[in-house]
Amino acid sequence: MASSTDQCSTKVVWEEASDVPHGYRFHLRSSVTLPVSADVLSVVAEGTRFHGSLEVSQTANAGSDAIVEIDLFYHHEEDLDETTVCRLHPADNEWGLGIFTPHWRAPRNDHHLLRFHIHLRLPAVDSGSLLAVKELNTDLSNFSQDLRALADSVYFNRIALKSTNGHIEAGSVAGDGLRFQTTNAAIHGLIKTAYGLELRSTNGRINSQVVLLSNTSDALGGEYQVTAQTSNAHLELEFVDAPVDHVLTASARTSNGRADVALHETYEGSFEVHTSNAGRPIVRSRDVEDPAGRERKRGVQVQTIRNNAARGKVWWEQENRDRGRVSVSTSNGRLQLTV
Questions:
Q1: Does residue 228 sit within a domain?
Q2: 185-203 CB burial, b ≥16 within 10 A, e <16
Q3: Residue 83: count of CB within 10 angstroms of its CB
Q4: Quick one: CA dihedral 66, 67, 72, 78, positive or negative?
Q5: What is the DSSP string of 228-252?
Q6: What H or E segment, with its residue span, contains residue 70?
Q7: How far, rounded to the nearest angstrom, does the alpha carbon of residue 11 sit from its chain's CA centroid?
Q8: Are 163 and 143 in contact (CB under 8 A)?
Q9: Confidence class of residue 306 from pLDDT cuts 50, 70 and 90?
Q10: DSSP string, 136-188
Q11: Which domain of life is it from (predicted)?
């Protein structure tokens, strides 16, 4: 990922736009293309004189390039003069968009902040096929990031979105490994993973529905690692689908907020729950039929360790009582685990 203007390939060419929102004096537009077959696609911003939003969607038009549309709103010409926006080419077969501004110097105020809206439009592919994106990385302080409903038409081998002071929202997204990280803002959406998922925030709610995609030839089993962590906020994680016989290692942790986790009915393994200053944690067991259709009876064992902690196991077959491992914890907030 780019770290300086040295990795710029070409600077963008701006065009004036006639629609200038209230509160700004100028509105510029530009666009660049990025080869969607690149080993790495990236959108990065460095400096302190900006904020904005990133949107990722898919067009109806087939092609080999992604289109990045940039809208820039600002007040003072000198702020534009001190800013570089460019097409990045940091290494062979790595392409991206870079925004570079100076760091804040007093007595600057909000009128010297640039506002960006970036729209990354991925191309379509033949009907019935998934667009394969090898890797998408973002590093965008003070940006919100929104992924539209992409899971049924785009597959990311790896996607890592990073922000501060801006939410990360996924209408739906699918991939092998996914990592979403922000601060002081929420993470939410429908996320489908074939191997691993990491969600991290501080002072922001996490509310996500997780699908564990089959990664084996017979659509059974598979190993998955899921981590969700925030602080001073509610954490809500629901596993809405998973293969029979899968192996899940999951950790969900918050503080000063409620924690609610619901495992999929195919889960087998151990679990631990812990809270403080909020009453006894609740472990709720559902009455569900055998998801494998083998007419097995589900076993659930819960042991209270202390008033604020419990552990247990859930299984469809006795030998699978230790197959997976799930840990849920919070402080100063109620906790419920559904198995």
A1: yes
A2: bbbbbbbbbbbbbbbbbbb
A3: 18
A4: positive
A5: EE-SSS-EEEEEEE--TT-EEEEEE
A6: strand 65-74
A7: 29
A8: yes
A9: confident
A10: EEEEEETEEEEEEE-TTTEEEEEEEEEEESS-EEEEEEEEEEEEEE-SSS-EE
A11: Eukaryota
Q: How many domains does the chain have?
A: 1
For the record, the structure tokens of 7 come out as 């990795």
How confident is the model over 98-126, as pLDDT tens digits? 999 988 765 456 778 999 999 999 999 98
Look at residue 133 and tell me whether its pLDDT is greater than 80: yes
Pick from 317, 266, 262: nearest CA to 288: 266
- Regarding pTM above 0.70, the answer is yes
| Residue 253 tokens, joined | 């942790």
State the Cα–Cα distance between residues 118 and 204, nearest whole angstrom.
23
Give the model confidence (pLDDT) of 17-67 as tens digits: 999 998 899 999 999 999 999 999 999 999 988 999 999 999 999 999 999
The dihedral over CA atoms of 87, 133, 252, 316, expressed in degrees to the nearest 10, equals 180
- At 111 the three-state DSSP class reads helix
Task: Output the CA–CA distances (angstroms, integers) from residue 161 to 40, 93, 145, 158, 170, in the order listed.
Answer: 13, 20, 8, 10, 11
> Is 275 inside a domain boundary?
yes
Nearest to 102 by CA among 90, 124, 127, 84: 84
Scan for tokens 């003070």, then name that residue: 142
Q: Is residue 122 part of a domain?
A: no
Locate 164 and state its tokens: 């501060």
- Domain assignment present for 83: no
Fill in the amino acid letter for 47.
G
Range of the domain at 198: 186-339
